[in-house]
Amino acid sequence: MAIDSTARVAESARVDPTAAIGARTQVGDFCVIEADVSIGADCLLEPYVYIKRWTTLGDRNEISAGNVLGSDPLDKKFNKAHRSYLRIGHGNIIREHYTISRGTQPESETVIGDENYIMTSGHIAHNAVIGSRAVIASCALIAGYVEVEDQAFISGGVVVHQYSKIGRLAMVGGNTRVNSDVPPFFLYSGFDVEAKGLNMVGLKRAGFALDEVSTLKKAYRLLYRSGLRLEDALARMESDLAGEHVQHLVAFIRGSKRGICRE
Q1: Which of 73, 160, 164, 249 is deepest in the core (most CB within 10 A)?
Q2: What is the pLDDT at residue 1?
């Protein structure tokens, strides 16, 4: 591993000789990069970023001041002698004062996808899996083993319980406690997470056509307002409603281990 000749590393930064830093990446003042770290091309590390061992960043990531990436898990069962990983994809923006832990079990990993926007002063815990193009607002706390699908929006102050799953293009309102699975495409709020309808803003921004939105409205009514048993509502969706988005919704619900939230 080596520092590319076009990378710029501040004199006050501390970079382990075994770390790899890609082309045109900038490492700011007082950053610390430990052994066995790999950072791709065209990344920006502002001052006081700490990247711990066995962390990998792809290209074009912007890491703001005060972040700690690859921190030891907040888990009493964690054994520091074992190797585990944090893997971050490409094009992510992680703003000030955020911590993201590596996996707990030996050789396990925490995974962050591509082009996510992660705001200030929060935490993503061990073994979480964050998809791509998600937004996680300030002061949100993502517990261990949580899964967040692509394009989800998690508002400020949201607390996500361990093992919970948040579906694609779901939007969770501020200060909500997510203690069950949150199906894709819908809007949620309440102290304990409750469904409130479709995530219309998110669907429009994602380019959903009017007929796709109409189909998801029908799916929402079957799921939450028809009075049908869950399995019967899912069967009706499969028989009456076409399209890949309904298929994804049904598959998400059938795959839920914690159970989905209700209206």
Answers
A1: 160
A2: 66
